[in-house]
Amino acid sequence: MRRLIGWAAAFMASSVLPHPRAAMETIAVNDNRVAAGVLDAGILTIHLEAREGEWHPDRDDEPGLIVRAFGEKGKRLQVPGPLIRVAEGTEVHAFVSNTLARGTLLVHGLSRRGVSSDSDTISIAAGATREIRFLAGAPGTYYYWGTIDGAPTDDQSSRDAELNGAFVVDPSASAQRTPDRVFLIGLWSRNPEPNGLIGRNDLVRFTINGKAWPNTEPLSYMVGDTARFRIINTTIVPHPMHLHGFYFKVDSRGNGTVDTVYDRAAPPFRVVTERAAPGRTFSMTWVPERAGNWMFHCHDNYHVLRNRPLDGSPIPAEHLMHVTNHAREMMGGLVMGVEVRERRAPEIVAQGGTRRALRLVARVDSAAASTDIEPAYGYVLEERGKPSHAVSPFLPGPTIVVKRGEPVSLTVVNQLPERTSVHWHGIELESYFDGVADFAGAGAHIAPAIAPGDSFEARFTPPRSGTFIYHPHADEVRQQQAGLSGALLVVDDPARFDPQHDIVLLLSVPRRETDRDTVLVNGSKTPPPLELRVGERYRLRIVDIHTFRPSMIVSLRRDSSLTTWRALAKDGMDLPAQRATIRPARQQMGNGETYDFELAPAAPGDLRFMINAAAGPLLTSMIVRVR
Ligand SMILES: [Cu+2]
User: Fold this and answer.
1) Could you tell me which residue, 389 or 504, shows the higher pLDDT?
2) How far is the CA of 36 from the centre of ligand 1 (A)?
3) DSSP codes of every residue in 69-101
4) Full-model pTM
5) Which residues, by Cβ under 5 Å, contact ligand 1, an ion?
6) 242 C-alpha vs ligand 1 centroid, how far in Å?
7) For burial by CB atoms within 10 Å, which of 139, 209, 430, 539 has the most?
């Protein structure tokens, strides 16, 4: 873990700025496009200083925070700190100054990189400067960070939380470097809670390159460009990072010290969600093939909440908010908006022709106690006027099964007392139908949130068979907890779809706060046994659409030992043959991920499908009875 925070620390120092100090330096936001220091004759010389300044993770004219940050000597402080970016083998000649009035600055990560045994803590007394020389090691995505020894413990999550910067080592100077972007994820928190769950009214900022949505950098690409991102998670919590509309290739995974860069000749890891554990990095490549507005965001819904303003004033509960733009006003934190433009005038996508028409009706779940604070909602799926499932409680959401290559029209009918939208998670479709309320679409043609009593017709033609998800993309925490989410399966032939052998296990958050220590499996915290037969083959489609717990572990055990299953697909994408291996039946999952496994039980007896919290405790289990 990258920063050991005293979770239970008392909160002494106020980092919130009720009275901005006149002389305080304003910290610049660093988009990590320009490498710091001076490169001359193969030697990078850089002068870094740690100082205090005022940082504005929201709009520049909104209240800020006093934090410690790094800057280059003679230049403004930056959050994240100055980007160190050199070619492999470059000599780095760094001078690091601790200009703080008191406390020893401990700097980590300013050393060779690429060697796991690298010991790298540099200690700098108040007022002192240390000189460091090293040769940059293996190419990869790394970072450096600082802590102040002797500062109050809660400073680590607040005043020291932005003492970090990206460190990228490129392949040797002769190789041509492909343009990329470096995104550092930070977390400033006044009062981290022991379970890591952060509410809207906590004083928290999850940031990407120093800004929280909707003030993160707007990204822009042309159709057909190649977009390369390096993601650095400097926080103490995992972030399942999800891209809308397109698969991305995971090119490397690292831990800050060592980076594993995958061979270009190897079959790619193609996903729509990649989980970055605390202190971890990854890099990704994707090609925006369709124009419009797309999101790249953390799928832990609590990391994309709009949190209270930094002046400390509270924000009202979701159902009391008067919202004109859901995406901008209800979301915050780890979200980036990506605008993709066409090189030529956009064609109007032909939407005529025959489409299979389905209606997804969002309703209040009358059999469950629905309150303003904890509403109970559900979906009913209708085809040709016939509901597929209309018995309350409407949990889980109905599994929607559509055919690969067949145009489908999904009309979302909103019978809720509040606005909603539905996102078709993992589906490669047109932006306008992507379901991010008040954001999806292009130019002036933006899909609004669906008002009560209104409806919205989404149209797409799913290009590949696999396991996908549908869920609201408006007030996600509230509406998903209310019961709104479900599995969306794309299959080669729906007429041959056999739910006895093709089994969805939808993991979602319970409706009631009092059930927080459980997970719903197909809508139940006490799911009935799954009945299987010896010698037959089953496809398990595990869908994680929980709103928090980004590190749950699912497993299938006989007594206490893991059984085995064959990995088939991730996020709806079939695995290449060499990765579709038989392996112990255990998988860590982040929100917004789907995994398909094949199970072929060889002997009768009871198995147990278990869902554990990352820290170990069992949340929910289900008997799998093999006869
Ligand atoms: Cu997150």
Assistant:
1) 504
2) 28
3) EEEETTS-EEESEEEEEEETTPEEEEEEEE-SS
4) 0.94
5) 239, 298, 300, 303
6) 10
7) 209
